[in-house]
Amino acid sequence: MRVAVTGAGGRLGRAVVTALEEAPFTGPFGPIAWSRAIFDLDAPEGVGRVLDRDRPEVVVHCAAWTDVDGCAREPELALRRNGEATGVLAKAAAERGIDLIVVSTNEVFDGRRTDGLGYRADDAPNPINPYGASKLAGEVAAREAYGGAAADGPALGIARTAWLYGPPGNDFPAKILAAAGRAAASDEPLRLVSDEIGSPSYTHDVAEAIAELIGSAAVDGTHHLVNAGHASRAGWARELLRQAAVHVPTEDVPASTWPRASTPPAWAVLEPTPLPGGEPLRPWQTALADYLPTLLRQRTAVAR
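Given the sequence above, the corresponding structure tokens read:
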């Protein structure tokens, strides 16, 4: 099976490429990695020529403008990159009978839920920031492009995820370890946001789930691909510090302590959807432990 991945150099894109390289259904040549030079969100019109050249059977659309504060400052640019460019790709892929997976986000929801439950795949989106609005626009554009497909025609999958972390670093865990070092050096407590709750999700696990959807011919539909469980930003950070054996005093603070251009949803938890194999993604604490050696090696390399 020929599978192409947009945004192959990004955090999730590179993990998807790795997962597909190890998947038996991609064959000896593996996936087709599309960098920004091949599929540019600022110039998506040529994607039809790329599809005709590479002839994929499935495209995983990981490319996105994920700078949520940048999106808040330039909402029209966010809509072009995350909404309109996705629509251009979806239309071209649908016309050629190609299955498409569009990676989306928990930020299509407003985060005002108070019942303690995660957002289900069939809950009505209601973004409260330009990043979430732009990603929802991409979902809508893709559904419109595939709306006329026959029952046996190409499949469209929307794969929402949340709070992604993983190589190549500069993610939330890496920033927390760096901040802990600064706090210890200044003999001050590490301040941690306690009023944002979400689903920490390891890119390796999300990528493996995407590969499972493709390999099981279960692309169609809306999928919530997150590690099991949820945590506040503070709880996530404290678990990281515990696993890394970093001892520093901490202090809970509200998110308003650091004003931002974007307003993130306070309750950013997604309810995972079942995978074809029946096994849910592992708990986020276990995934974090799996990532920790890589994270610590990266930290040592940076220090050197």
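The longest helix spans residues 75-95. Try to locate this feature in the token string yourself.
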